[in-house]
Amino acid sequence: MQKLTRIITLSVALTVVSGCSYVGVYKRDIPQGNLVTQEMVSQLQPGMTQEQVTYVMGRPLLEAPFDASQWDYVFRLDKAYGDVEQRRVTLTFDPQGRLANIEQEGDLSKALPLEAESSMGPATEGVDPMDALPEESTQTRPPSNVQPVQQP
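Request: output the structure for the sequence above.
Response:
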């Protein structure tokens, strides 16, 4: 009986230590939506067309499904070891498609701690993939065994 108690106690202890440990858990910030800054919003002026607003702010994250006169730019940053920061800018257009009202929520003037991971990511359009390789890998490429075709 004493041996069975030791085995059960050891099994429970190993399970708790291995599966429920918070040591070494990696968390990262999760940004979502349109990044909106005070600089962008300060460029907006009443009377601007929807095309001009799109040039300054980009396409909105949300457009009202039954009324295209309201655009919402929402940005949410879920900090790994902190709280959630949310920014929202709501733009309202008149029937002629001109900017009529600007509403802001959140602190747009505060800088956000966003760090871009430059080492990896999708390729940008129009960039030669061979230019993205490090110098040593392009220089150590084996020579091609294909001979050029000669024209008669």
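The radius of gyration is 28 Å.
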